[in-house]
Amino acid sequence: MSEATKPQPQAKGEKTPISDTSYVGIDAILEQMRRKAMKQGFEFNVMVVGQSGLGKSTLMNTLFKSKVSRKSVQPNVEERIPKTVEIKSVSHDVEEKGVRMKLTVIDTPGFGDQINNENCWQPIMKFINDQYESYLQEEININRKKRIPDSRVHCCIYFIPPTGHCLRPLDVEFMRHLSKVVNIVPVIAKADTLTLEERDSFKKTIREELRANGIDVYPQKEFDEDAEDRMINDKIREMTPFAVVGSDQEYQVNGKRILGRKTKWGTIEVENIAHCEFAYLRDLLIRTHMQNIKDITCSIHYETYRVRRLNESNILFTSNPPDHPAAGEMSCCRVQ
Amino acid sequence: MASSDVARQPDKGVRSLSLAGHVGFDSLPDQLVNKSICQGFCFNILCIGETGIGKSTLMDTLFNTNFENFESSHFEPQVKLRAQTYDLQESNVRLRLTVVNTVGFGDQMNKQESYQPVVDYIDRQFESYLQEELKIKRSLHNYHDSRVHACLYFISPSGHSLKSLDLVTMKKLDSKVNIIPVIAKADTISKSELHKFKIKIMSELVSNGVQIYQFPLDDETVAKVNTTMNGHLPFAVVGSTEEVAVGNKMVKARQYPWGVVQVENENHCDFVKLREMLICVNMEDLREQTHTRHYELYRRCKLEELGFKDTDSECKPVSLQQTYEAKRQEFLVELQKREDEMRQMFVQRVKDKEAELKEAERELQSRFEQLKRLHAEEKAALEEKKRLLDDDLSSFGKRKAAAQLLQAQSLTANGKKDKDRKNSGFM
């Protein structure tokens, strides 16, 4: 084939705008995409990590406005602290305004509860890597499913106890190891025990420590796409970690029924941004950045895992130096 | 063909929940759409048809722009494909459109291999996507997807039936690409002939087992319009970029002495239907079918051809990695063998050449000897002659000397004799 048979992206004179005398209909593809997405439904997997008693299950229930936590699923099980970190995941089908989502909440009871907490992050790391592994196995199958079920952990919410001082070694260790494989969103749990000044100084300390330890939490600076993105994400980074209060009980305040915690000295409104930052967390996680979180998991964390895994197998099987890309040899195989 | 493969019946262990309030994930489709707008879309159309049937004009008319087009000659020795990529934008949607045209299709005397370049092109695009997908460090979301999403097959408006070239080509392509047959230059066929022609074409396609693209019926919003359109296949189209005044508007049309054929008039031709189906309603489905059906089929066949299997002979799952490593070892061994062979061959050739050269040298040497001998012989002969000549010369010299002596002697003897005679005469 002597003619140009490979499409060379010659951007023919910048963008040729279609004359508005006649409507072609290219932008109808947005509608088509939307229809397809609605039909297929979405998947979202979120993991909650933190010591017991920090209000993880309550926060999940508050976020998704229904009983999504593990405790709600098995209401009669005795609550005991397990000897090792367990991983329990519960899936739910939820629907809102025609949009269907399969939400999976992964709980980690036993994290940070033992006397000796060394390496308690390991079972969690293993679980996350196992999800990547099963996705990878599906993907390299010859006969593979049209839509590979996505069980990869998209987001990990890490609960920091509200000591008001600084991060504990456990927190630093955990976040240091896991920020490389999953998107971590740190939150200050039970924030109603901190006054606003304490809260601000606590947050500043935490941010400093994260920076000092080289921990990149979501939204990661290096994945900002353009200036607009960076602006939005900078605002979020200024607020990290979010100080949240969770509640699934409704009270009457000013004639409205709102979620909150009633105490003798007042009622804390969960969705009031003057009281706590739950609304920001919810907006970040669900209303504005959910797709972005999933994309970063798919295209960056998963790809990193894949590269590492394929390189490892390369070394394992041959004595060749590990910098031969498999694809190079794949195409050699083809030439054969 | 439907893409609803996520089992929508509740899986084991998945509960259905109802929400107590507004959570907000109904904005997810919007988030998805926004991301796609930022990324831009990509669509590739392949147009197959004889030279001069109106492929480029139809593309111009469909997308309402003027793509740079060249008129091709009818004397191409082989079918070639010409691909051109354009960046289009409408409101906030950016589309990277690639139009691939066949050049010289149907012009050759022997059309047996005409379909092959087209099949090769489609396979090449699948192959490069497969290679990208198999890389270790890959960037799929940045990858410019060049796989052919839709194939418009232009049928000439003979009014009778499909040509055998059409049937053969479409049969070869139906498992690789979404084929949408269109009847080109439909203004040459009358309405009643068109109706019969369409029926004939569809029945021929069915009886030959050609699977053309069916507009999807699983989504309720578009099922109705798609069903109607499925009944209108193949679309009879007319393309034109010239504008003619009809009434008080300028419309795209073709002007004849007997009337004006308006491109966007549904009574005149099916152009509007084609545009709606191809672009407005089913573009995403075309892309999805290409990825989930045609590409997966190609990938499966390709990997199986290379010897990869999901389960080996004992039905134990074999990892791709193991098979791949085994093949790699095999390949390296063969490579080594070939290298040895080549080395041996090289050594052999060198030896042969050396022997040849030695032979030549010997021959040269013997010729030289021979010449030298001849030369020596001649020289000897010449020497001989010279010696004879010398001998002759010397003997002649001797005889001459002797003769002279004799003469001198005889002269003196004669003189004496004369003297004697003289002397005797006196007495």
Give structural notes.
The complex is a heterodimer of chains A (336) and B (427). With 336 residues, chain A is of the alpha/beta class. Helix content of chain A is 40%, strand content 17%. Chain A has a domain at 40-68 and 82-245 and 276-313: Rossmann fold (3-Layer(aba) Sandwich), CATH 3.40.50.300. In chain A, the strands form two sheets. Chain A has a six-stranded mixed beta sheet, sandwiched between helices. Chain A has a three-stranded antiparallel beta sheet with strand order 8-9-10, with no helix packed on it. In chain A, helix 8 crosses helix 9. In chain B, the strands form two sheets. A six-stranded mixed beta sheet of chain B has the order 3-4-2-5-6-7, sandwiched between helices. In chain B, helix 7 crosses helix 8. Chains A and B meet through strand 1, helix 1, strand 3, strand 4 and helix 8 of A and strand 1, helix 1, strand 3, strand 4 and helix 3 of B. Strand 1 (16-17) of chain A pairs parallel with strand 3 of chain B. Chain A: InterPro entries: G_SEPTIN_dom, P-loop_NTPase, Septin, Septin3.
